Amino acid sequence: MARLKPRLKVGVLASGRGSNLAALIEAAADPAYPAEIALVVVNVKGAPALQRAEAAGIPTKLIEHRAFPDRKAFDAALDAALREAGIELVCLAGFMRLLTPGFVEAWRDRMINIHPSLLPAFPGLDTHARALAAGAKFAGCTVHFVRHETDTGPIIAQAAVPVLAQDTPDSLAARVLEAEHRIYPLALKLVAEGRVRVVEERAEILGASGVAARGAAPVLLNPPEEA
Ligand code: GAR
After folding, report:
1. Which residue's CA lies nearest to atom 7 of ligand 1?
2. Same domain, 118 and 100
């Protein structure tokens, strides 16, 4: 019998609600998905992300940043937990701690993050309120490899959603979140399949030239022409 290709062992770091974690868990529940969630580390006691992982039967670790004297010591504990579990790729899923340059470098091109804006626009916090204040007509989300500067690094996948006239930060966040739940599993799949290569700080997706090669790429207009 042909032996199944081993799935990439993924560790997820989360701090809060855990809806992106849930999207990854759901995708990885399919045995054909090329990655398995082998460990979930949460840094905030009582975070719903922890319960979601436990409910799915995934090994979890609570590593509270408050218990450590500084960022370096906290990151060393994270690193030890990930290595002990044999983790090959780290996914940040609403992980709201800045990581030290040493940790980021140790996991270079083996750590990805999801951010709720179309990077490089709106890195940092309050992305939806800032997109609305800027009058942006599209918003969205980005999955990228992690670099030391916050919310930078080679972009693996993005999803765009329109900004509607009556949007509030919350309504826009909800629309973007739905897109997050689609692109994070997609981006992780591409990475786990070995189809993402970083060349000169850009992520190249092997075999993904499809749309443009076959014909005109779709153009999204907002407002639409008939407006
Ligand atoms: C998500 O919207 C994620 O993109 C964002 O936090 C939320 C976490 O939600 N991450 C960042 O802002 C990181 N810069 P979740 O816990 O339900 O996945």
Report:
1. 94
2. no
Ligand 1 lined by 97 (C-beta under 6 Å):
no
Q: Judge whether residue 1 has pLDDT over 80.
A: no
- For residue range 170-183, what is the model confidence (pLDDT) as tens digits? 999 999 999 999 99
For atom 17 of ligand 1, the residue with the nearest CA is 19
Query: How many domains are there within the chain?
Result: 2
Whether residue 67 sits in one domain with residue 120: no
179 CB under 6 A from ligand 1? no
Specify whether 12 is located in the same domain as 103.
yes
Cis peptide bond prior to 162, omega within 30° of 0: no
Domain end call among 86, 107, 128: 107
The Cα 151–Cα 8 span in angstroms is 24
115 is catalytic: yes
52 within domain boundaries: yes
Using CA atoms, how far apart are residues 79 and 75, in angstroms rounded to an integer?
6
- Average pLDDT score over the chain: 95
Residue 182 in contact with residue 158, Cβ under 8 Å? no
Residue 117 gets which letter from DSSP? S
Q: Does pLDDT of 219 surpass 70?
A: yes
Which residue range is the domain that position 175 belongs to? 114-207
Q: Which of 41, 115, 145, 147 to mutate to test the pocket of ligand 1 (most atoms within 8 A of CB)?
A: 115
Looking at the CA of residue 16, tell me the nearest atom of ligand 1.
16
Residue 121 belongs to a domain with what CATH number? Answer: 3.40.50.170
Which of 15, 20, 111, 188 gets mutated to test ligand 1 (max ligand atoms within 8 A of its CB)?
Answer: 20
